[in-house]
Amino acid sequence: MDNMYDRSPLWDRYGRTQVTKGAVADLANFKSNEVNFKLALWDPRVNGVRYLKTLIHALSSGLSAANWTRLRNIRERTLGNPIAIRYDGETVCLDYLQAVFEVEFMSAGVELDGAAVVEIGAGYGRTCHAMLSNHDVADYHIIDLENLLTLSSGYLRAVLDDEQFAKVRFHPVADVAALFRDHRFELCVNIDSFAEMNAETVHAYLARIAESCRHLYVNNPVGKYMDKSLDGHSQGNEVVALALRTGLLRDIIDIHDNRAVEAQSRKFVTAYLPGDDWRCVAESRTIAWPYYWQALYRNDR
Length: 301
What we know:
Structural class: alpha/beta
Number of strands: 9
Helix content: 40-55%
Low-confidence stretches: none
Order of helices and strands: HHHHHEEHEHEHHEHEHEHHEE
Largest sheet: 7 strands, mixed
């Protein structure tokens, strides 16, 4: 018998452990179990970083020349050791890809040079970093919780130059009323935090925005989901229950059905309209996450 074409030691092992005679005889679920995880897919349960880097690569390959310029203008992006790839000599992470997409969307409808900007919930400050690296804004105000202000102020102090950092102001939530009373803003930004606030808090912010801002940019999920296959509810049932009770949009939908997301986006556009004198001037699904929507509103008063 010619053994030239027999299995390798590696496939001898797979045949005994994953692609077994019993496993290949069952067609019911083989595309989402160990059989196909060896034949066609890497097991997503343990290959999250692999898939994240693949997503970053795919988005980088389609990045426009204008967005490559925006990205390269943002210096010190690697502070904090992000999960990243190398593409055409640039270190690229998903955070800053999202940031350049967001700045692209906002700048199409708002003159950012010379603008006073306020951001509600800035995270570590990536949007501020991206905007100040690409536009000569007048000043940039950040409202956030105490621990996050510590993070964003430290991060932005490290990545911005002195002139840029001098434009940034940090405000605890206790100062919200005074800030909106004493300032007028060309743009208010909220990315992925309205959906994690109590509904009455979001309504209070929208009322302040209606009085003191010319534009509002919102980028948040269109609804809630209960797909345990995504993360096994790894943070526990209590966190899931808390998350389901926050935000303005609490309908549970199939976030991986584009038509369901599209239908729910109509509620999104209406929910974040700050007042009767406002209108939505631009909206779209976000690029990275299929169940996130972005909208730009303008006060026509």
